[in-house]
Write a structure and sequence with these properties.
Chain lengths: 170, 170
DNA sequence: CCCAAACAGGACCGATTCAGTCCTCTATTT
DNA sequence: AAATAGAGGACTGAATCGGTCCTGTTTGGG
């Protein structure tokens, strides 16, 4: 699967919603956000607390309090949202600096360095998409190029970059 | 985390090992592979059965049997190994065609299309790295470019593609 | 000054998923 | 025929995760 957690998924939805109506710095309460997104209120609360702790949203307590985005939507990469909920992005255990050394096969598996590079590619893909990008769908919905599999020819150079940078803002 | 399963991780290690000594089509038994990689024998067996069912390795039963890679290492993307163990790569539930429609928020979340594109980027990153790439570490270990986070400037165009295609085979 | 609104922080449990093992069957070689 | 080796699937213990709840603390309004 290589899937992000549900909480992180919800977090992106919530943050994108905030990004879409980031007007005059208005705050939105957990109750309101739960109502408009359909996500259960306690879960919304938990997620926003995480985002606030990581400086992605700005919170205010008390009556008339609530949350709003702490930065401009263009400046908040999706990767930051995911990391706020799940910690550093690491496709394998040995791919991140934090958990490197925890693998018992380290040193003799021979693929650690390769994983670190794959991880960098994935991380940058997520880093290259902002909340502003998430909020405006439908720009150049170009048909995705079919990809060769086992036994096929050498594969597309730059394919990842094409989608991440060109397609998106094309 | 955004992490692949341990089984998929082991699978890549095993397949890479096979790729590294793909000579004269020799076969390797589960016992031997377990011995050289340090992974427990039953686990190695389970993984190779999955890889065989997906046509990634070629198996032969009986005395003098064993496994070998079914294609040239350059033609086997890491993505194929992961998919053999975990199913289609899908960063979120709504990102893959198979499980699309299972999300109760579908239609009103507004980020489904964006996720599908992110998923395509990640999938291609994994598709662009072959077992041959995994087997030869150390080619152009260029320092990774630091990436701007929340509040930073607009980010690197083509970064993902640079790493996936250029750095790796550069 | 007090009450209500709203977030902060963390404990907690139930369910799901995953890793790992085992058993039986089939195929191949000697 | 016997030994070797994979095929296929069932099963279980553990770890993780999603979701809820409870108790503070802060803020604004009457």
């Amino acid at each position: 699967m290589l899937r992000i957690s549900k909480l992180a998924d919800y977090a992106v939805v919530l943050a994108t919603w905030l990004a879409a109506r980031e007007q005059r710095g208005e705050r939105h309460t957990v109750r309101d956000l739960a109502a408009v997104t359909g996500i259960h209120q306690p879960t919304v609360g938990k997620i926003l607390k995480h985002l606030a702790r990581h400086g992605i949203v700005d919170s205010q307590r008390g009556a008339r309090g609530g949350y709003r985005l702490a930065a401009r939507p263009e400046d908040v990469p999706v990767a930051a949202i995911i990391e706020a909920l799940e910690g550093p992005i690491a496709v394998t255990e040995c791919a991140s600096e934090e958990t490197a050394g925890a693998c018992e096969y380290e040193g003799r598996c021979g693929v650690q360095e390769s994983w670190q590079r794959i991880n960098a590619v994935v991380g940058r893909a997520l880093e290259s998409v902002s909340l502003a990008d998430m909020a405006k769908p439908g720009l150049s919905p170009r048909e995705l190029v079919p990809v060769a599999r086992v036994g096929g020819e050498r594969r597309m150079a730059r394919a990842a970059g094409d989608v991440a940078a060109d397609d998106w803002h094309g």
